[in-house]
Amino acid sequence: MNYPKDFINKVIQGDCLEVMKQMPDKCVDLVLTDPPYQEGWERIFPELKRIIKDNGQILWFTQPVELYDLPEKPKQVLVWEEPISPKPIYKKYREFLDFIAWYAYGDYTFNKIMWNMMNSRFADEVIRSARIHKWEKPITLMQKLFLIHSNTGDIIFDPFLGSGTTAVAAKQLGRKFIG
Question: How many C-beta atoms lie closer than 10 Å to residue 154's C-beta?
Fold first, then answer.
């Protein structure tokens, strides 16, 4: 593979760490990802920091219990309030929240799109009949995050592409993606 020609606007199958090792330093504007539960802060975060631009950002979906394991203090923790939780219950309260650890570096992008959307809580819904898998995030949530944290033409990277909503939202909004 040849970066960037073989990476931009492509879905790459493979181990995300191996793919990131092929990417040059400081080549991505925004990382937005929802990794598998308890997947690799300690393994993946250093590579993400290497490929993120000096003014880039990382938005990492995480479970409440994982907040204690963050590799560094985020700028802020955002909340996505799930209308229906697919998370199993094992003698505890059902979790209807996903947290988004927001890391921002340098003179990062922060577009104030609509004041009523400019809070740290999102309540977008996935239409259940349209879901590809049960952990899918709503495309409207991804679009809002892209409109706030990136600009047209920016490169968005999602090392755990899942159902592809990151790529779809990026393409719809004129961003480039690597999945």
Answer: 21
Concatenating the DSSP letter of every residue in the chain gives --TTTTTTTB---S-HHHHHHTSPTT-EEEEEE-PSTT--HHHHHHHHHHHEEEEEEEEEEE-GGGGGG-SS--SEEEEEE-SS-----SSSPPP-EEEEEEEE-SS-------GGG-SSEE-----GGG-SSTTPPPHHHHHHHHHHH--TT-EEE-SS-TTSHHHHHHHHTT-EEE-
The phi, psi pair for 149, rounded to 5°, reads -105, 5
pTM of this prediction?
0.85
User: Beta partners for 61?
Assistant: 100
Of 29, 35, 74, residue with least CA distance to 54: 29
d(CA 37, CA 78): 18
Residues near 177 by Cβ (< 8 Å), separated by ≥ 6? Answer: 8, 9, 155, 156, 157, 158, 166, 167, 170, 171
Task: Return the pLDDT at 32.
Answer: 94
Query: What per-residue confidence (pLDDT) applies to 75?
Result: 94
The stretches in the chain having pLDDT less than 50 are none
